[in-house]
Amino acid sequence: MFIPVGFEQKSIVTSQGRMVYYTNDKAPWKIESDNTDDVPTLVFFHGFGGGSSAYEWSKVYPAFASEYRILAPDLIGWGRSEHQALAYKVDDYITTITEFLEQTCQPPTSVIASSLTAAIMVRVAIARPELFKSLILTTPAGLSDFGENYTRSFFAQLVSTPVLDRLIYNGGVATPGGIRSFLENRQFANSKLVYEEIVEAYLESATQPNAEYAALSFVRGDLCFDLSLYMGQLTIPTVIIWGKKSEFTGPEIGQRLADLNPQAVRIFQTLDEVGLTPQLEVPAVTIGLIKKFLKQLDEVPVAVV
After folding, report:
1. Which of 53, 67, 238, 264 has CA atoms 20 to 30 A from the CA of 253?
2. pLDDT averaged over consecutive 10-residue blocks of the chain (305 residues)?
């Protein structure tokens, strides 16, 4: 796995197994006299997809390591975290994300999350608002928003077929060609920005033992839901960043979701010529926006609930 300079791997135990995370606990970031109680925490959660892991944010979170205690977990079923042989559900991630925040953070905490995980984070923040200071979400979509049903899509139906699902994953997804094709054609707006390290990092995650269980749960639609049913309940100050060239859900859906709760969603920022993961495609821009928005959100009082 690709770990930035000055970061090390640690883990906690959740109800779904061991959850690995990366944190700035080494030089040049860590100093023996550091009092971590005085340093705010910033948590980065990756999205879902074949080969997803904390690597997704690895070009962004080191930029904050001199000012924050950084936590970047591999979600259960992804990266180096435990991969159980089960059909994962949304509640599994609501539970384990909550457990992670409870065990590693002194609330309230600023959290950054991507894609479907960002949508799940909205539900975590509704259930446990005291854990959160602010949210910055990139392309948060439940993939069945406003009454759409992702599970009826052709590919979701295809991978719902036993045996065939494993053949598709092992032969078409968890291969160098499969990973590169997906990144270039579906995840990035500019395929020229996909370089070999990204492919290798995604491939390493996708080929972990039992990695297919979480990935297939995602592709089948087991983790999808209608985020529009929850947005109105959010009370945490939130910013949404949306790549206009996102292949899965366009910015029109994002704006509709934001408009459901303007009291919580303070900013809706679109990015031209950017796809699903601006944190990988345009990391410098993403860093600049996060720094700007963290400052703005710090000035917003959290609602008392």
Report:
1. 53
2. 92 97 94 69 95 97 97 98 95 98 97 98 98 98 88 63 71 88 94 97 96 91 95 98 92 97 98 97 98 90 49
